[in-house]
Amino acid sequence: MTTASQLTPLLEIDNVTVSFDGFKAINGLNFTLAERGLRVIIGPNGAGKTTFLDVITGKVQPTTGRALFKGKDIKSLPEHAIARLGIGRKFQTPRVYLNLTPRENLELSCNRQKTVWTTLFKPTPKAEARTVIGLIDTIGLSAKADVPAALLSHGEKQWLEIGMLVAQSPDLLLVDEPVAGLTDEETERTGELLLSLAESHAVVVIEHDMEFVRQIAQHNKVTVLHEGSVLCEGTMDEIQNDSRVIKVYLGDPDS
Description:
By secondary structure, the chain is an alpha/beta fold. The protein has helices spanning 4-7, 49-57, 79-86, 102-110, 116-121, 126-138, 154-167, 184-197, 210-216, 236-240, 243-250; strands spanning 11-20, 23-33, 37-42, 64-69, 72-73, 87-90, 172-176, 202-206, 221-226, 229-234.
């Protein structure tokens, strides 16, 4: 029996083009994503990866085409309205409150009506406190839950920001180069965290580190962007052996 969730993708990018003064950063791009699971987006510099995320989050509006989330056209919606629909984005550089603890950062994220003042000086509701404890455990910061975030390593700040996104209950997580500057151990743990989150969320990861891509894409689809369009999609093995991908990354041996 086919369910409604199987019929309607969580995210659908339909023939989207984004032009900047005649330059097509995105060129007739088509992309669909199910409501759970992890998808890795790769591509050379200038392939349109960041603009692709900008379209999904409303930072950039398509010149032509449609962007559908849960079947709703989000093309003309402002960023805050798209975020409220259930899309969370993590940028390359961690954006956390360094003077607050991981626990306080997560409490602030759990309730968007809160301010820093109420987080620090008003008691946290029990249900919210349980959610925060669970998130702290999920991101592996139980031992540092009550130290200032400024004292965390770069990798730990990345995990905290991912936790802050999850605290807002998004259906779709967009994660941009999460392992840049991380140690090997932090990179491995980041992969484990994202794979764990993909069991209950849709997760899109943009990444240049091919070793990390191999770690997280072992059983997940990889999408290759080139010149603003989808060049190909498939498993990591299929992508690595695709002549089009080899040409894009290594050049044409006959040229």
